[in-house]
Each structure stands twice: as C-alpha cells, then as structure tokens.
C-alpha cells in the first residue's frame, strides 16, 4: 500500500504580528503528534505534513494514491482557510511518494488546484520501500 505524505509552506495575506500562532481546525485531521496543524508567523503560514486522513474517522480515505492526494489537498485547503489563506497563496509544496509511478497521477490532481502558477515550486522525493 502506498502512502502519500505532503507538506507545504504558504504565504498568506494576514496581519503582521510578532508572535507565533497555532492554527487549528476540526475540518482537517488533528496532528498525529505533539505539534500543530500549522503555525502562523508574521505573514507566513507553515503547514505540518498532511496525510490522506478523513477528519471524522482519522482513517485513510482509501489505499489509492488518487483518493489520498485529493484528501490531502482537501485537508490542506481547510487549514489554509482557517488561517485566512488559500491555495493561491502557496509558495512551496513538498510531496513524498513511495512509488515513482504515482508521480503523473499526483501531478494531474495537483494541477486542478487553484495554486498560483507563478510562484509554485514542486519538490518530489521518492521514499524507498525500506524507509516505510
């Protein structure tokens, strides 16, 4: 079973503050460890790694990379909304795939999002089966 893991850093149109603020929403899965879903610092938002988990159940949406990718993006969208941001404010995503053959499918799903094409940077890392 392939598991998709994604993380992104966003620049959001928020009021500049001098403190860090945790962002939390029930519309995305709770963090699996002692960390926040996201941290807002000044005009930047740092979203923790997201998985294709359904918020209500805490379970993976399916074993399929397409469904997991769509769920990851839905979860990230909810975190962005909770912070006052949107997909159009994203400046970087990091996607980790277990299998290179899933690259095309994941890329096609990401292309349907309303990311700003002028500033979006993709970084893909392939995780060896041994690391899982």
Automatic annotation (TrEMBL):
What domain of life?
Answer: Eukaryota
Task: Tell me the GO molecular function terms.
Answer: deaminase activity
The record's section on Gene3D superfamilies has:
RutC-like (3.30.1330.40)
GO cellular component terms, alphabetically, are: cytosol; mitochondrion
CDD domains recorded for this chain? YjgF_YER057c_UK114_family (cd00448)
Instruction: Supply the PANTHER family for this chain.
Output: 2-IMINOBUTANOATE/2-IMINOPROPANOATE DEAMINASE RIDA, 2-IMINOBUTANOATE_2-IMINOPROPANOATE DEAMINASE
- Give the UniProt family note: Belongs to the RutC family.
Question: What protein name is recorded for this chain?
Answer: Uncharacterized protein
Q: Which organism is it from?
A: Aquilegia coerulea (Rocky mountain columbine)
